[in-house]
Queue: 2 jobs
Job 1
Amino acid sequence: MSTNLTSFIKSIRDIMRNDAGINGDAQRIEQIVWMLFLKVYDAKEEDWEMDDDDYVSIIPEKYRWSNWAHDDKSGNAMTGDELLDFVNNGLFPELKRLEVSKNTPIKQSIVKTTFEDANNYMKDGVLLRQVINVIDSLDFGDYDESHAFGEIYETILKELQSAGSSGEFYTPRAVTDFMAKMINPQIGEKMADFACGTGGFLTSWIKELEPKIKTTEDRDAFDNSIYGIEKKPFPYMLCITNMLLHGIDVPKIEHGNSLLHNVLDYSDDDKFDVILMNPPYGGNEKEDVKNHFPSELASSETADLFMSVIMYRLKKNGRAAVILPDGFLFGTDNAKVAIKKKLLNEFNLHTVIRMPHSVFAPYTSITTNILFFDNTDSTEETWFYRLDMPEGYKNFSKTKPMKLEHFKPAIDWWNNREEINEDGFDKSKKFTKKEIEDNGYNIDLCGYPHEEEEILPPKELIQQYQEKRKSLNDEIDRILEQITDILGIDLEEDK
């Protein structure tokens, strides 16, 4: 890897620290990303122009990166107030108002959607010129350098974890890689992520599928194998750039909210062979969002609603791997039970991997799980496997994140399943659908021994207690209903 790549982030950070307009990590990264997008897009346009003599850029000539950002060292490159004026009063307004219709090719319309919510935070035109020069020194025409930059880009995405709440859209790469590996992508399949964030699952899918390309037909199928939708503008912008960097010239990534569509209106054309997701959780949706779901599935918890979207959009014989918090597993409130009933009756929930705590550190301590299911038949039995903390680790952290090798015990077990009991606790066990039903659809099974429980931050602790109380209340209501039925008592009459 060339030195300008390895020092890339550091040199930009050092320059930006002196600019009064940049306030914190999130703004610094957003600033880097719109410039990176234009630089990467410029390199892509060079390729497209070579392949198509009639290619016309959607970006007006004077605003194409190579025509204003590139410094040919002749002393004519814009800098200072002239550069600031050009960016703030020319480039941004122009790209935000590009004319785009439903017939505009995706690879062109992404310019407008990327810039719709982008901002230039820098206030010093001389420092802005210095940053532009660092970004312009990257050579995306060089395959090795472009590939190496994919790794640098991962570093930028990881930095989002420490950029306050922005971290909620970064799933550790080890987790997305493990899920893509177990799903085993095939050429010709189409995969979706309905809350794709910065594109982690899409990237892992691409990496797992690319070695299987043998022909030009395979390459075409590969290029069209992903679909993502992301609600927030900043991760959307990161995702588009991420896909261009990974060689997907026509990234089918939409800027929108998957929950704003009536699930009963989905047709076969809206369904996918594979769904890989880490739905946002902990959020509560407004009442009007719940109206897009059948009443029994209309939970107020975001992750539950996404689970329904996934079930309605998975093709017959399709496969899915989804990350869900513990609250989904132990929750026995009416909506969660209805969702789990639908999952077990209409889909084959074959595997649940319990993940150790702190996988998503530092931004949440809530323990998560990966559910693997397919749309083949109803569930007969479900395997649960508890993945323990690797030796020598007390917690995962930003400096000691989870790695793919930490999944090795689960990968070894996957193809040679057996029940495992350690110190009186089930580490791996198979449960029949009837056992799960008899347990009130509480699938908090093969969990972690209680002495390992971690003290959660107050907000998450309250959230978890609220979920447990809701489940308990619903459980009590159900039992009371059964008792009154047996005794033939009408409680309404007695009031």
Job 2
Amino acid sequence: MTSLSADDSFLNHYGFSHDPFATRVPGFKFFPAQRKPVLGQLHHLARYSQLLLVVTGPEGSGKTLVRQALVASSNKQSVQSVVISPQETTDSNIVLQQIAQALGSPSADFDSIMAQIIQLALTGQEVYLLVDDAERLTGAAVETLLRLAQGNPEGRPHVFLFGEHSLVARLEALVEGEERFHVIALQPYEEEETLEYMMLRLEGAGSSLDCFSEEQIARIHENSGGWPGAINQVARDELIDAMQHSKGARKSAGWSWPLPMKHLLALAAVLCVVVIAFLMRDAGDQPVPATTSLPLGTGSAETSPKGEEAAGAGVSVGDSTPGDTQSQPEQPIIREPLAAAGNAELDESSESAPEEPATPDEQVAPAQDASGSSAVQNPPSEPAAPAEAPREPERQIVTKPAAAGASAATWYTSQPGTNYLVQVLGTRTRSNAEALVKQHGNSYRYFVKQHEGKPLYVVTHGNFANRSAALEAIKALPTSLKAGKPWARSFASVQQEIVQAR
């Protein structure tokens, strides 16, 4: 399902105007009380410090919403905001080009951009450089932004990076112990905030929290860890599971039509037309009773009783001569299927057991002498098979091996949908996902989904028979992975995301 076009059965079942837990819903804003101090801190540090400011959190933690709030709450008269959203790995030259274009700098080199920033500062204009998905920046790009943030006494831009926590280690390696940046880590929602967030999402879709029981709401908060992106996914999984159980209960209580009534009526009309056409064709093809007409001067005019009986039944007896062919009207010739002309024993054996590939010994054809008989005799304990009529060789269907890139998706889609796994993290960079999988072993894999119109590489761990086993596995994860708030989810939900990404 896309952001606003969910499956019809899902929307109709709950009476939603749109998918309430889609990634992006136009007009929806939720900024809990705990995030307001973060916003105030960003404005304060931008005004009174010369540090590059970093906002970190896992995928789906609300970093983009904080960035949007920061731009919206800035004074438009005195602040010019430049937002950079890398689609792929972004190098320093691309960053400088985007900044130069936004500020109207004549050149995209570092010195020209700094000169333009200083010129704006003389007119009372400050520059905010805000970078989403900053973990996609190369080391050179991060170093360039650190230089811009440092600026000089005449002026400097205020640089804000919004990215995953892995970005902090790269910054520490570049500054070599100097205090040149400040990190603000976003916190997950409290249970009351999760409840309020879900309520606003549902109200926007024309519904309410009555869709969920208290047990479901508590489970959603626990399994999502309080992160808004995970809340959307877990809440939607709960709704789909409840819908499927409801449909299963209705089917077990009694048989129901598989299609809406209007579709059934249309199908019935088509079937009526087909039946009428078939009956009219049969009426036009009724055979005319054949009459025995012998040519003059060829044979006797008397007919045997069998011949009369057959003629009365409209069946021709005996071989026809050329004269018969010309005098009698053409009749449709009904031929038996080719398989019916074969040996009866052969038909029975072919229907009772599928063919198996020959063993290496069986693949060597026995030599035959001049009379056509085999030079190698069957053992006395095994009766000789009747001679087979030559048959047209069957065409074999050759299955091509799956492409290497599809192997991960194939593994996920081949698992039972009722099983569970642990979602460890999501990242925009494939190399990050591959490195983590290689580091932690065979029980870790990743799949690709679409998130906000861009590919997201989701790393998972394990394959568990139920949710309880998956939750226990989370407790045993390394501390570095627990920091990303991993959560348990069903294979069915992963399989649906893989299908949507194709």
